[in-house]
Amino acid sequence: MTTKLSQELQTEVDRRRTFAIISHPDAGKTTLTEKLLLFGGAIRLAGTVKGRKANKHATSDWMEIEKQRGISVTSSVMQFDYNGNRVNILDTPGHQDFSEDTYRTLTAADSAVMLIDSAKGVEVQTKKLFQVCRQRGIPIFTFINKLDREGRNPFDLLEELEQVLGIRSYPMNWPIGSGKQFCGVYDREKTRIELFQGDDHDKIEVQPVSGYDDPAIKEIAGDYLYERLCEDLELLDVAGDPFDMEKVKQGELTPVFFGSAINNFGVQTFLENFLQLAPKPEPRESSAGRIEPTKEQFSGFVFKIQANMNPAHRDRVAFLRICSGKFERGMSVKHVRAGKEIKLSQPQQFLAQDRDIVDVAYAGDIIGLYDPGIFRIGDSLSQATEIVYDELPTFSPELFSKVTVKNAMKHKQYQKGIDQLTEEGTIQVFRTIGFEDTILGVVGQLQFEVFEYRMKAEYGVDVMLQRMNFQFARWLVGPSIDPGKFRINSQLVKDKKDNYVALFENEYALRTAMEKNPDLQFLNVAP
Ligand code: G4P
């Protein structure tokens, strides 16, 4: 029987799209995000869009350290409506100093938009974020940006997607020239060209054509570019992958769009195609089996905890991804791990100064919950019966430091701080075997700074960090583990759950250890 609620849930889920933009700093993520928001008439902005360079502060400067650096440390969420869709963009910090939060945020997204600078191609940070999306098997859409500048040959860029990332591509449109000669793009599906003309690109200027070899294109682009376009598209038609929606859904084929975010060129076409092709919230795995987003019972999981959003109150906000049902302000839900019933009376769309109160929300939406210290990353909340979502992966840190407390008298507060910050997911902590030294692991340098700052500000403890040469960790699983076999450019430690972990200085050290320990599995996420 379809109830009124189930109809409502179906409609709301169908129109939702929740995605993250993944890119390397400077590819134009802020610019693209701003343009998308402009199309949508944003209804809720979670603070940012990020402040450009040091002098333009983001409105989400929740933490003192954000103010000092003039960047947005934390991921935030933006919501807008477009053509009947409700769109949630999960922002991932674009700065070099991104953190494990960035990875975790991707677990709350249903798809990703990979933004690439046409002159630079696939860069380090894009690669790392891509791998997390790949592990989750979510669809990935590509926007190749800055076509108004001289960039690389589009075929080279597609080749790089395949060689470096291992993903095949389907260009939805194709550039006609680039840099000073950039005339626009040919839309393969709609057989039309979008013209890059004049200064005002807010309105798309389109010209329908009979195909890429329509002589009308020659008149606009000139002989040379016309011939190149014909050659390129012929080649694509013959040798390129066909469009295959199933492969897109599996994250094996990425639809590619070319454009220029700063000129607002190609952004609207991208948005419209994306909303059509991108998945709505999908069922998620849990202890109670697969949970449909249209299930009437409300459920969700915490993927991020933000401390000190308001330094005056020292409160924390837990970010919850709704996975099913309808959220209503004031509702009571089960906090499954704590075995408690809690009332969600102050949910926020966590917006900078004036935090918006959310009254209703559905699967795909993100809400911020006031957290008096009761939530941990990965916690599940559900209505009536218990639903526990699969644990969020713990990713391998990439930077390591030995930590000691300067004043031994403060040892108790130091321990408390470490425990709490580990629980929040601010840092990962490892202990050496025998000596019980503490080693911190993080994904971005800024996490160390945040750690030092918060130990001092919140626990009154001065710490000393001593950088180590390790570059990554592998969780070890196997019958017996011999510390003697992890001595060369590596070290055996234990994580907070007492799992054995080996830290390595380089790939070579890892390979050597794997050869010496054929019975062991070396996992790049915690078991
Ligand atoms: P990010 O968030 O990915 O770090 O990138 P952001 O949007 O801040 O863009 C990085 C730089 O690239 C900015 O220039 C921005 O104006 C420029 N940019 C973005 N899209 C395009 C594009 O389509 N074409 C061209 N030519 N440039 C683009 P900046 O000089 O570093 O900053 P600003 O002084 O313009 O703020």
UniProtKB/TrEMBL annotation:
Residues 14-282 form the Tr-type G domain. SUPFAM superfamilies: EF-G C-terminal domain-like (SSF54980), P-loop containing nucleoside triphosphate hydrolases (SSF52540), Translation proteins (SSF50447). Keywords: Cytoplasm, GTP-binding, Nucleotide-binding, Protein biosynthesis. PROSITE patterns: G_TR_1, G_TR_2. It comes from the Bacteria. GTP binds at residues 23-30, 91-95, 145-148. Its main location: cytoplasm. It is found in: Cytoplasm. Pfam families: EF-G_D2 (PF22042), GTP_EFTU (PF00009), RF3_C (PF16658). Increases the formation of ribosomal termination complexes and stimulates activities of RF-1 and RF-2. It binds guanine nucleotides and has strong preference for UGA stop codons. It may interact directly with the ribosome. The stimulation of RF-1 and RF-2 is significantly reduced by GTP and GDP, but not by GMP. Belongs to the TRAFAC class translation factor GTPase superfamily. Classic translation factor GTPase family. PrfC subfamily. This is Peptide chain release factor 3. The lineage of its organism: Bacteria, Bacillati, Bacillota, Bacilli, Bacillales.
